[in-house]
């Protein structure tokens, strides 16, 4: 990001310094491992530990648990800079740090924080959020996974699918219905289930189009018994926790989309400036300049909006409509950026040895994951109709 970006002024000096540190780490430590991670289908544990040691994972977490005590913006910076180099690694960190860690910070008991939060911040463990089920992803309030009380334990039965980090997770944050009716937030409970708990099993890693360095699989729970001290927060309140985190999840999707689009811009510009066609630099042709301008505009608009909404979240303000707008716009901008990057590179854009092909595959994920574009449009329309179309 250059100083002429409108987003530059939205960062504090310490945040800009941190951004430089993270960017340098990604170039030095992560970029050389990208091909290896894509082939292996997971990030190396040594890399996560190194990120923990450098304070990258726990940048915004409380210092008493090994975090840096920084702003939420520092975590957003990590998301953008990671996605710029490898979107799969960003997806793994997104679950570990943006979602699970934040839930533990906000609602975990002291024992839960020491047992699960500290290792996540140190890069010594990974986690999964088990929400999506085979019968439907967006209808999260109608899970078929249930839990019933049995003395001082809970017995969980059900299955989950498309679970990020499942093949490498040490702890699973499982959402199950414990009372109430489908499509009602009341009656959902969140459980912390350790990997070696009897009855919990993980399926074979999915062979995916995108985010190949982030492992994804099914999770099965058959009469899984967990002690009542493994409940995160309050019984029957878990779905409210999930709903509260949706705005943050969509804003961080904006950070990831911006990182992917920024990578596309860099790839396209470098190639266009180096490649000669009919005796002229490719960048001298107006059709190519049009593509570059459109990619750059998408990057700039996405970045400014997600920076603004991070500040909104830091103030504790609601941003449901704006977060959905960001998720929709930035994912479409990233897909367009990746498509145009492939087009600019021509035949080389179709070769897996060049990053454009990976960026093209990875960008598409964000129009589906964390709420499809169609769901975002429903949210935007619903919230706009509530306000009568008036600006708030």
Question: Could you describe the 3D structure shown?
Answer:
The chain is of the alpha+beta class and about 400 residues long. The chain has helices spanning about 15-30, 35-40, 45-55, 70-85, 85-105, 110-120, 240-245, 245-275, 285-315, 320-345, 355-365, 375-385, and strands at about 125-130, 145-150, 155-165, 170-175, 190-195, 200, 215-225, 230, 275, 280. The chain has three domains: about 5-125, Butyryl-Coa Dehydrogenase, subunit A, domain 1 (Orthogonal Bundle), CATH 1.10.540.10; about 130-235, Butyryl-CoA Dehydrogenase, subunit A, domain 2, CATH 2.40.110.10; about 245-385, Up-down Bundle (Butyryl-CoA Dehydrogenase, subunit A, domain 3). Helix content is about 50%, strand content about 15%. The two termini are about 30 Å apart. Helix 10 (about 320-345) runs antiparallel to helix 11 (about 355-365) and helix 10 (about 320-345) packs antiparallel against helix 12. The mean pLDDT is about 95. It is globular. It has a four-stranded mixed sheet, covered by helices on one side. Strand 9 and strand 10 form a beta hairpin. The protein is built from twelve helices and ten strands.
């Amino acid at each position: 990001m250059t100083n002429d970006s409108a987003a530059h002024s939205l960062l504090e000096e310490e945040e800009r310094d941190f951004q430089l540190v993270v960017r340098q780490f990604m170039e030095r430590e992560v970029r050389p491992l990208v091909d290896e991670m894509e082939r292996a289908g997971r990030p190396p544990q040594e890399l996560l530990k190194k990120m923990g040691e450098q304070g990258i994972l726990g940048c915004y977490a409380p210092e008493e648990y090994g975090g840096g005590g920084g702003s939420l913006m520092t975590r957003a910076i990590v998301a953008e800079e990671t996605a710029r180099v490898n979107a799969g690694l960003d997806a793994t960190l997104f679950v570990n740090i943006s979602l699970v860690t934040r839930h533990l910070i906000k609602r975990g008991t002291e024992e839960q924080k020491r047992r699960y939060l500290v290792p996540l911040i140190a890069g010594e463990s990974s986690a999964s959020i088990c929400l999506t089920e085979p019968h439907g992803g967006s209808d999260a309030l109608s899970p078929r996974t249930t839990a019933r009380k049995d003395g001082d334990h809970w017995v969980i039965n059900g299955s989950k699918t498309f679970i990020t980090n499942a093949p490498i997770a040490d702890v699973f944050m499982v959402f199950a219905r414990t009372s109430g009716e489908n499509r009602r937030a009341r009656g959902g409970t969140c459980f912390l289930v350790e990997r070696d708990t009897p009855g919990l099993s993980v399926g074979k890693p999915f062979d995916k189009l995108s985010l190949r360095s982030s492992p994804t699989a099914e999770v099965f729970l058959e009469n899984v018994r967990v002690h009542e001290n493994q409940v995160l927060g309050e019984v029957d309140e878990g779905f409210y926790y999930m709903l509260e985190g949706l705005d943050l999840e969509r804003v961080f999707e904006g950070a990831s989309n911006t990182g992917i689009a920024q990578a596309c811009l860099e790839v396209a510009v470098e190639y266009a400036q180096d490649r000669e066609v009919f005796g002229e630099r490719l960048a001298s042709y107006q059709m190519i300049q049009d593509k570059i301008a459109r990619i750059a505009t998408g990057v700039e608009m996405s970045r400014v909006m997600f920076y603004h909404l991070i500040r909104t979240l830091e103030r504790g303000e609601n941003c449901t409509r704006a977060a959905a707008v960001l998720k929709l716009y930035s994912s479409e901008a990233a897909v367009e950026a990746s498509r145009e990057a492939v087009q600019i590179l021509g035949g080389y854009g179709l070769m897996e040895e060049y990053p454009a092909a990976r960026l093209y595959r990875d960008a598409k994920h964000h129009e589906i994951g964390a709420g499809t574009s169609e769901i975002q449009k429903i949210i935007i329309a619903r919230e706009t109709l509530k306000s009568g179309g008036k600006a708030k």
